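Customer escalation, tier 2.

The customer says the design service returned an amino acid string that "doesn't look like it belongs to this structure." They asked us to rerun it and document both sides in this ticket. The original C-alpha cells are below, unchanged.
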C-alpha cells in the first residue's frame, strides 16, 4: 500500500484538538463506515506533503481511512471529474466540450482505439483488446485518483462500479468528485448505435441494459453531492453546496 510505511503518527494532543474543533464523527462516511472514529486522517496525505496540523486532519473510522488510502479529496490536489453513462451516451463528446487545455482524460474507448491504430471502429468489439484496454484503464485509474498536483482530471466510465469496488459511486461522492451523467435515454442510445451503421454487438447491448438496470440519474447524484458538500463545509473542507462548480473557487484552506 502506498504511503502506509510513511504514515505519520498524530500526537494525541493534536487529535484532541481536531475532535474539539470538528467532532469525532468519521469525516469520510464511505460505504461500510463504522461511524466510530479511531483514527486521525490526513486530508492531504502525509506522503503527498500534507502537514500534521489540525487544519489538515479530521477524524475517521479505521475502515474508511483504509478504504480511502491516499486518494485525493477533490480540489485538495487534482480537480477530479467523473463522467458516466450508457454506451453511446455522449460521454467523450461531453468531456471534449468541457475540459480545459492541459486536462488529462482517462477514457476506455480512447484507450481501446489507441490499441488498434488505423481502426475506424467507433467501439472496439474485439474482446481481448477490450480486456487490454480495461487493464490499462484500471492501472491508470489507481494512480490518477492520487494525483496531488492542481491539474484537471477526467474519468470516463460506463458504470460507476467495478468487481472489487461495487460501491465506487459512493466512494466518489465521499471524495466529492464532480460527477456528470451522460444519458440521453435508452431509445436514443439504441438509435445512435444503429445509426453508426455498426453491428450492435451483444457486449454493447448488454452494457446498455446493465446501465439502465442501475437507475442512476443526475438528479439523484446531485442530491447526494449537495448533502456531501454541506457536510464537508461543516468540516471546514468545502465552500458549501451552493458555491458553484468545484474549481471555481479554491476549496483548499491555507496552512
Ligand atoms: Zn467511516
Amino acid at each position: 500500500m502506498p504511503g502506509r510505511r510513511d504514515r505519520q503518527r498524530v500526537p494525541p494532543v493534536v487529535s484532541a484538538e481536531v475532535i474539539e474543533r470538528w467532532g469525532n464523527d468519521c469525516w469520510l462516511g464511505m460505504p461500510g463506515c463504522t461511524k466510530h472514529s479511531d483514527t486521525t486522517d490526513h486530508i492531504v496525505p502525509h506522503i503527498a506533503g500534507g502537514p500534521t496540523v489540525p487544519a489538515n486532519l479530521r477524524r475517521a473510522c479505521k475502515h474508511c481511512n483504509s478504504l480511502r488510502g491516499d486518494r485525493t479529496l477533490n480540489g485538495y490536489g487534482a480537480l477530479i471529474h467523473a463522467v458516466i453513462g450508457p454506451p453511446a451516451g455522449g460521454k467523450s463528446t461531453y468531456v471534449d466540450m468541457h475540459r480545459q487545455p492541459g486536462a488529462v482524460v482517462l477514457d476506455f474507448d480512447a484507450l481501446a482505439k489507441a490499441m488498434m491504430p488505423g481502426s475506424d471502429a467507433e467501439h472496439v468489439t474485439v474482446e481481448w483488446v477490450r480486456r487490454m484496454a480495461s487493464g490499462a484503464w484500471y492501472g491508470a485509474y489507481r494512480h490518477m485518483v492520487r494525483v496531488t498536483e492542481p491539474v484537471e482530471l477526467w474519468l470516463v466510465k460506463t458504470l460507476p462500479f467495478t468487481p472489487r469496488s461495487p460501491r465506487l459511486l459512493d466512494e466518489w461522492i465521499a471524495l466529492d468528485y464532480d460527477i456528470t451523467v451522460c444519458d440521453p435515454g435508452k431509445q436514443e442510445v439504441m438509435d445512435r448505435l444503429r445509426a453508426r451503421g455498426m453491428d450492435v454487438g451483444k457486449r454493447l447491448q448488454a452494457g446498455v441494459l446493465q446501465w439502465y438496470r442501475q437507475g442512476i440519474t443526475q438528479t439523484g447524484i446531485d442530491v447526494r453531492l449537495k448533502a456531501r458538500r454541506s457536510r464537508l463545509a461543516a468540516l471546514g473542507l468545502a465552500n458549501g453546496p451552493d458555491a458553484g462548480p468545484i474549481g471555481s473557487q479554491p476549496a483548499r484552506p491555507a496552512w
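Tier 2 assessment: The sequence is consistent with the input. The longest strand covers residues 37-42. Confidence is low (pLDDT under 50) at residues 246-250. Sent an explanation to the customer and offered a walkthrough call.
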